[in-house]
Amino acid sequence: MAGQIVVGVDGSPSAAAAVEWAADDAMRRGARLRIVHVREPWSYDFPFKAAPRSQDSLPAYWLAVLAATVDWVHSYAPGIDVSAAMVTGSASERLRTESEEADELILGSTGLGGVAGVVLGSVGRSVAWHAVGPVVVVRRSPPTRHGEIVVGFDGSRLSEAAMEYAVQEARLRGARVRVLYAWRTPPFAPYATAHAGGVAEALVEVSQEVRRSLAVWQERHPGVRIDGCAVRGHPVPALSDASREADLVVVGSGARARRGPALRGSVGYGVLQHARCPVAVVRPRGPYAWRPASAGNPEMIARGPQGNGQGPSDL
Q1: How far from the centroid of its chain's Cα atoms is residue 290's Cα?
Q2: Are 23 and 115 part of one and the same domain?
Q3: What range does the domain containing 83 cover?
């Protein structure tokens, strides 16, 4: 991979949390960190902060913010190779392009409108579902470390990509992996309406199948503890409930998968809305990955000297 993590900033508190998350992950991975602000040409038509609104002042303001963010990262994690850039264009398209050269793309969960942090709006959904590789959505810095990564798994290619990412994150963090298979009873199955005991037996059987599947993953990754079970119900509440005691929830995404009820679309969107911790949306790389065209526009680069101690809350 590229050995680079990209984080989008837009001035929101969740973007500040995203920068901290990205810096921590860059330290764990020994990766470079690239901080990006997307300047949409039409953004001058909308209210934005309490700053002069001339065509020259906003670029100068954001270059200063990016430089201050670089300063903070140098202070927080002196060993990280960090750079920053302001790019012009559509936020969703530019961030998709950035994801092509990144091991993962980090975004805040809520933003100021029309930029990187708007994950529950049209921009964020587009980036989360169509980026090349993992996208991590950070609502806020988790106050407690639980030492657990939760991942949705159904045996499909999409969930296998999510599992691979979850195991990698767990290894880097010294955490365990908790695998959930949300099993929904077929609505017209005879045992679903007439034989409650049969439903319980079927759930036990599904749980055993999940454990057998996970035994292969455990053998492949002996240094990571992997536990799993099947739960009856919809995957959104199951994963959301599990997120209360997790450092990260991982789900799969991919519009062109050929088989399996993948954790994508409404499921992934529901988890993003309701999870109590950061969420990683993982799209498999390869022949079925969506490839955006590069916008090819010039960048404004902001680099700052090390160590002024300014925090990311100023983003």
Answers
A1: 17
A2: yes
A3: 4-132+292-314
Residue 41: count of CB within 10 angstroms of its CB:
10
Give the residue-averaged pLDDT of 62-79. 93
Quote the CA–CA distance of 156 and 261 in Å, as a whole number: 8
- Could you tell me if 197 and 257 lie in one domain? yes
The DSSP result for 72-135, as a single string, is HHHHH-TT--EEEEEEES-HHHHHHHHHHT-SEEEEESS-SSSSTT--SSHHHHHHHHHSSS-E
- pTM, to two decimals: 0.79
Name which of 66, 22, 51, 241 is nearest 150 in CA terms: 241
Q: Residues 183, 109: one domain? A: no
Which of helix, strand or coil describes residue 63? helix
130-142 pLDDT, tens per residue?
Answer: 788 899 999 777 7
CB distance 44 to 152 below 8 Å: no
One-letter amino acid at 118 equals V
Q: Which candidate, 5, 244, 196, places its Cα nearest to that of 107? A: 5
The Cα angle at residue 138 between residues 132 and 142, in degrees rounded to 5: 140
Cα–Cα–Cα angle for 312, 300, 136, rounded to 5 degrees: 45
Let me know: does 237 contact 244? Beta carbons within 8 Å.
no
